């Protein structure tokens, strides 16, 4: 996989497919492979550029304070380095929070914006959940095992999680197969989630925007939908009725169909 220097760090990325560029920004503690089930479909229509964010995967993990705004600065510099002036931008959770800042600060870089399981500003509930993940990671001394024990149950509905033991085992095996995130890097990334506040930036977003939620998500629930749809002019909302925080895995075919429909309407 190629690596480039951007915004003072080395950024690792993967590129697949052909067509207009589609930039995929991972969620907390994840690397570029987290969108494998989407790239399989998206790459038929788009050049998919999946990055490892600062602090994750094979990108640099400098000792510094991270923020969602800084992640957006990284992406903007990365785009300039690889010669992509403008791209469709998609992210889930932390990736979506990064996308908010990117579209607000660098509007000419964003052709369309896809925000999945997003939120404009961390509230007390979200902060407490993430602080719990931090405590679990410290207690286990393993970000990988924290993801499996602490984060994955939030990503699926209880019935789906309990009724698909083989799939959950495969997901856990996939998580264990990826580059291990150091504990200190996870703490910096997760602190960026806790301090995230892009609420004042929403009115600056001009790109066509799709906002999606899982109906049964508790972490970034529909409690955030009014602020996002009201703040981003012309945005459209999609709700995945049977899903929690990660429709990309629980209802992959439906997720890919509805997100590709949006992306295809804004190509050309």
Walk me through this protein's architecture.
By secondary structure, this protein is α/β, with parallel strands linked by helices. Helix content is 45%, strand content 18%. The chain is built from eleven helices and eight strands. The protein has helices at residues 36-42, 68-82, 94-105, 124-140, 143-155, 158-163, 165-177, 183-194, 225-231, 247-250, 252-265, and strands at 3-6, 9-17, 20-25, 46-51, 87-92, 110-116, 209-214, 236-240. It has an eight-stranded mixed β-sheet, sandwiched between helices. Strand 1 and strand 2 form a beta hairpin. The model has no long low-confidence stretch (mean pLDDT 98).
What's this model, at a glance?
The chain is of the alpha/beta class. The chain has eleven helices and eight strands.
